[in-house]
Amino acid sequence: MLLVSSYVQAADVLVFTDQKHAVVAPNDVPVIHLDAPAEIEAELASELPADSQRAEVIVRQRLGDGGTELQARLASAYQGVVDAWHLGITKLPAIVVERRYVVYGDADVSRAITAIEAYKRGQQ
């Protein structure tokens, strides 16, 4: 796998995607799955009874059993959605560099970073 360019630190790169859009990214680049909240909610709602009162008890139990790990997963999942919204992400996958430059539709992070760097050089 190609490394993130020396001009761009991995901390300056964010990748937004979902399970339908696989990406190739270095291990140190955060990949944010915008469908993660729905996946967690589906886990919590899995095989619930039709009786809404019993279902509520089971979901509350699952939330309690998940403890701080589940809370952290939920917080992280929803924070990713907030970050995407804040950055104005409109399509997936989206590779964002320095919270300023974005490449849509490219599943290869290294290639997208190369394109952004070429654009930046052309602007100087």
Task: Give structural attributes.
Integrating conjugative element protein; 124 residues; Integr_conj_element_PFL4709; single chain; alpha+beta
- Name the overall outline: elongated
- Runs in which pLDDT lies below 50 for 5 or more consecutive residues are none
- Count of helical stretches: 3
For the termini, the CA-CA separation is 29 Å
Which structural class should the secondary elements be placed in? alpha+beta
Please state how the strands of the largest beta sheet are arranged side by side: 2-1-3-4
Task: Please indicate the percent range of residues in DSSP E strands (runs of 2 or more).
Answer: 5-15%
Mean pLDDT: 90
Total beta strand runs: 4
Helical residue percent? 40-55%
What sequence of helices (H) and strands (E) makes up the elements?
Answer: EEHHEEH
Rg measurement, Å: 18 Å
Query: How many domains would you count in the coordinates?
Result: 1
**The biggest beta sheet, please?**
4 strands, mixed
Short recap of the structure:
With 124 residues, the protein is an alpha+beta fold. The chain has helices at residues 36-45, 52-87, 109-123, and strands spanning 13-17, 31-33, 94-97, 101-104.
Task: Give an overview of the whole structure.
This protein has 124 residues and is α+β, with helices and mostly antiparallel strands. The protein has one domain (10-107). It is 49% helix and 13% strand. The protein contains three helices and four strands. The protein has helices at 36-45, 52-87, 109-123; strands at 13-17, 31-33, 94-97, 101-104. A hairpin with a 3-residue loop joins β3 (94-97) and β4 (101-104). The model has no long low-confidence stretch (mean pLDDT 90).
